[in-house]
Amino acid sequence: MEQLVSNFVNLLAVDLRPGDAVGFTFFTGYMAMLAASIFFIVERGQVDGKWKTSLLISALITFIAAVHYYYMRGIYVETGASPTEFRYIDWTLTVPLMCVEFYLIIKPYGGKISTMWKLIAYSVVMLVAGYIGEGLDKTSTILWGVISTLGYIGIVYEATMGDVKKVADSSTNPEVGKAVRLLRNFVIVGWAIYPIGYMTMEGNLLSNTGWNLDLLYNIADAVNKIGFGLVVYSAAVSSTKKEATATAKA
Known about the structure:
By secondary structure, the protein is mainly alpha-helical. It has 10 helices and no strands. It has one domain (21-221): Rhopdopsin 7-helix transmembrane proteins. 80% of the residues lie in helices and 0% in strands. α2 runs parallel beside α10 (213-249).
């Protein structure tokens, strides 16, 4: 058994060089998000029905990211290059799902499907413009960065002043308002690392800082994706317990 585990770890960490902080974050990001996926799936059976889909989405987000990180780790280790395309494929799948989480939380309390589509549209603008600026048209990175930021601002607006906040504030369940506030904080604070990372590209505002873009993105991805799921999980467990207690008293 010990040999089997050792072979498995060696397979995952093949050619990972000692002291390679970036390679380390690719590896730990993969393992952490895979573990989070298993956790969310297992715990899904412990929460009330209306939260089950939210936890399933959380598991999908971290699982999709884990698969991409497995391949991104391989590309980085073999070539030393930043796996930009794989990263944006990952974000194209996971970021809209994170936007769907907002909708699923407010849906039982009057959230509209149009709100979900607005959030997804904003995320698509953010990601497509970001990829063009980072991977296709590096001569106009600032222009594409501005367009990408407009999409990001749209998501922030919906979570802080728009439909998401309004429905959450009117909800009779305090856990919904708390969850939306925490997810909003992840968007404002946690997601801010992405435009900051984008500005470290050559020719941009922070290009002379010497920061490693992959290192920033890897840490942010793990914190944001797992953190998003843990917020949903915490709200689901608290809400389920309170409703069970209320039912027992009745």
